[in-house]
Amino acid sequence: MSAPNDKSDAGESTAKTDPMEGYRKDFDAAERKVAGEIDPGARALVVAVAVVVLLASFMLPHAGAANGWDVLSYNEDAAAETIILPSRIFVWLALVFGVITSMLALVTRRWVLAWGALAGTAVSMVLGMLAIWSRQTTPDVAGAGPGIGLVLAWLTVIVLTFHWLKVVWSRTAIQLAAEQERREHAAEQDDYSPWRLR
User: In 3D, which of 76, 77, 67, 72 has the Cα closest to residue 96?
Assistant: First the structure.
C-alpha cells in the first residue's frame, strides 16, 4: 500500500526540484533567435544612405558614355568602351551584395545576411580597385578611363564593407559573451544539482 504513495511523492519531489524545466526549451529557442539577429543601431542609417548612393552611382558614367546599368547589361555603349571583365564583375557584385544583400540584412536583421553582405562587399572592394586600375593601365583597352560613377561605386563599397565589418564584429563579440555566460550558468547549475555526487 505504501508503494503508490512513494511514487507520487517521488513525482512531486522531481517537479519541485526544477520548476523551470518546462520553460527551458522556450528560453533556448528565444536565445537562439536573438543570437541570430543584429542590431546595427545608427549604422543602419549610414548603410541605407550608402546603398542609395551606390544605386545612384550606376546612373553615372563608369567609362566614357557607359554608365553602370550599361556595364551590367553589357549593351552597345559598354561594348564601345571596351568594358572588360573586372568592371563587369565589380558592378554585379556591388549590386548583389552592396544593394540587395545589404537591404535584406537591414530589413530582416539576420546575422547571416550581414555576414554575407560583409564578405561580398569585401570582394567587391578588391574588384573595384582592379576595375579602376585596368581602365588606367591596360594598353589594349580602347576606351575612356574610369568615370566618376565607377570611382563613387568603389568608394561606397569601401564604406559598406567597413560598416558591415563593425556590425558583424560587434555581434560576434556579443554572441561570445552570451555563450560564456551560458557556460558559467550551466556550471553553477551543475554545482547545485541534487543528483551531483559529492
Answer: 72
- Count of structural domains within the chain: 1
Q: Are 60 and 72 in contact (CB under 8 A)?
A: no
Q: Does 197 map to a domain?
A: no
Per-residue pLDDT of 38-59, as tens digits, reads 777 788 899 999 999 999 999 9
Q: Which three cell numbers stand for residue 141?
A: 583597352
Q: What letters, b where the CB count within 10 A reaches 16 and e where it falls short, cover 68-90?
A: bbbbbeeeebbeebbbbebbbbb
Its pTM stands at 0.70
Residue 174 lies in a domain: yes
CB within 8 Å of 60: residues ≥ 6 apart: 67, 68, 147, 148, 149, 152
Cβ–Cβ < 8 Å for 73, 132? no
R_g over Cα of the chain: 27
Residue 180 lies in a domain: yes
17 domain residue, yes or no:
no
